[in-house]
Amino acid sequence: MGGVEDETEPSRKRIRLSHEVLRDLANGLSIVGSNPDFSGDLMARSLPIKGDEEIVGSKGVIKRVEFVRIITQALYSLGYENSGARLQEESGVSLQSSVVNLLIQQVLNGKWNESLATLKSIGLLDESIIKSASFLILEQKYFELLDDDKVMDALKTLRMEITPLSINNARVREISWSILFPVKFVHVDSSNFSTTRAKSRAKLLAELQKLLPPHVMIPDRRLEHLVEQALILQRDTCMFHNSEDNVMSLYKDHQCGRDQIPSRTLQVLEAHNDEVWFLQFSHDGKCLASASNDRTTIIWEVDSHGDLSVKHKLSGHQKPVSSMSWSPDDSQILTCGVEENVRRWDASSGECLHVYEKAGYGFVSCAWFPDGKSMCLGVNDKSICMWDLEGKELQCWKGQRILKISDLQVMNDGKQIISTCRESSILLLDVEAKVERLIEEDQAITSFSLSRDNRFLLVNLLNQEIHLWNIEGEVKLVAKYKGHKRTCFLIRSCFGGLEEAFIASGSEDSQVYIWHRGSGELIQALPGHSGVVNCVAWNPANSHMLASASDDHTIRIWGLNDLKMKHKGPANHCNGVHYCNRKTDRGETWL
Amino acid sequence: MGRLYIQNLAGEKIFKCKFCKVDSASHNDIISKDFRGRFGRAYLFRNVVNISLGPSEDRHLTSGLHTVNDIYCSSCQQIMGWRYEKAYEESEKYKEGLYILEKERMLKDGW
């Protein structure tokens, strides 16, 4: 709409006009929400105008006039009308020019023709704005006439006043249907057809305000909007922001401390007999599944205190379990042996429900489809296939060059399959449209993980870098994270924390690495494991709980540093060693 | 050790680890065939894969003093050769960052 930008010249002129208007009119003028007692207080107008400086604030970017006007607006919207009026008076800066006030009054009172005249007298430079605003006013007039059953008058308005404006002809045609089709025949299914009756006049005012340049009619709640912007910016730059309960205050810039990030081992889970390679929390965060070189998968339960204990140990695979996938409703798990079969288990009973095999081949990856009725499997003949839960093949994509070590994910809408292919690429395959997109790196890709909102992909590379890609529309590299060590093993990373604002990764130096996602800064490197940390998983339901799986056969659960000592009875969890004494913590590396 | 990430090389002539048969280097990456190692003939490569580096050591080789790292196959940990970290004579500087693989430790695939 070509809103007239920041013109200080006209506004200053207008202010001076208002000065005179203020001084000249002895009987109270129509200030929005004016208090009838105001006229008794006119003595105040002879006070000198305080603080005539044009700019306020130390950075020299705030114009005094604008500042006062939005404060006045805030006072009025809070209901402090007396204060609002007084401020206008004291500062000599009027919230709206009297012309605009008049327009507002006329619109609210339904005086359409007068309002059109007032509109023209505001002195807007842009013709198209005047036309669009007139259109809105006349449209309102038209609908109100129809509501009053004054069909002929409405028709006249349509013909003689609206149409000659020659703008938005499509809308003109749309609204002309209203004469033919009274309200009873509202078409529910066509969303463009707003055969609504006249909207409220307040709503019209809101729309006019959006149309007019901001210095003429200040957008509603402008001061609140600016303050919120500042608060949100503070929150976004807060590198450790990981808790909801931090209520932001206006008195102090928001800055969380390091204590919001899990950095202390709360539990060491020892139940596997060999290296633990893969970890994943259930979608509801109540369970954790771990897959190991010892050919078993263990399902752990998170209790109300945040302690984990073994629920089931799933044995049956003859090969090490390389990965697993929780069903969308968390009731079942798929596990995949290294180039072996895929097994489906009931998560609450621990029973193996089905073993899937493909004669002569082995599976390399597995993932559920969001409907929970079919699954996607990577095969070591370089193809991807889709099977139903009975084991019947529904679809197959050959020639995808799937590697023997590859990850597989299905997006939440069930429309796209993501898999590693060709060593340094990731394939994003649209199932129905049969469209392929590729993320191409110049280094080998060892693993990847998908964000919960499915908009981003975190890719682990051979050269010790982790790349963040935006996969909406055109794939785009967004950020890089460095610091951890990887030379020969498959190390995994994940998203996590409040709104997935953090990236965590395992490392060959036995530490867990945590970066702030937005800034790319390394926040923590947590020692504790005595072997390569292969995989990390952040609890989606608890932004303070992080789990890590290592070659030292254990899984560590990390939590906040200042967690109060909880009542732990005699260790009835024989598989979890509890760190009861804070003093046993070794000094952690603060980076 | 954790879940090994094994790289696969593209190309026709590939050198593989004699013991576990994972790819080590490609014939295209040979810089020179004129070297001798512990076990006899050795080749100088610009790039190798599936290799773990040992610690840096100073060693007196026939070509002079060098700082080297022994390299091991990351899959089976057998020693395959070494990597030149630093050379102390100007004429030997070209070897820095390059790898020696001993012919005796490899098998040839593709020819």
From TrEMBL, chain A:
CTLH domain residues: 101-153
Protein name: CTLH domain-containing protein
A cellular component annotation (GO) from this entry: cytoplasm
Stored PROSITE patterns: CTLH, LISH, WD_REPEATS_1, WD_REPEATS_2, WD_REPEATS_REGION
InterPro entries to which the protein is assigned, alphabetical: CTLH_C (IPR006595), LisH (IPR006594), WD40/YVTN_repeat-like_dom_sf (IPR015943), WD40_PAC1 (IPR020472), WD40_repeat_CS (IPR019775), WD40_repeat_dom_sf (IPR036322), WD40_rpt (IPR001680), WD_repeat-ST_regulator (IPR051350)
Complex formation: Interacts with RANBPM.
Protein keywords: Cytoplasm, Repeat, WD repeat
Domain of life assignment: Eukaryota
Ribonucleoprotein in keyword set: no
WD repeat copies, ranges: 269-310, 314-355, 526-568
CDD domains the record matches: WD40 (cd00200)
Location of this chain's protein in the cell: Cytoplasm
Keyword Transcription regulation: no
Automatic annotation (TrEMBL), chain B:
Cited InterPro entries: Yippee, Yippee/Mis18/Cereblon, Yippee_fam
Keywords: Metal-binding, Zinc
Keyword Metal-binding: yes
Highest taxon listed in the record's lineage: Eukaryota
PROSITE patterns: YIPPEE
Record GO terms (molecular function): metal ion binding
Keyword Nuclease attributed: no
Domain Yippee: residue ranges: 13-110
Family membership: Belongs to the yippee family.
PANTHER family in the cross-refs: PROTEIN YIPPEE-LIKE CG15309-RELATED
Name listed for the protein in its UniProt record: Protein yippee-like
Taxon lineage: Eukaryota, Viridiplantae, Streptophyta, Embryophyta, Tracheophyta
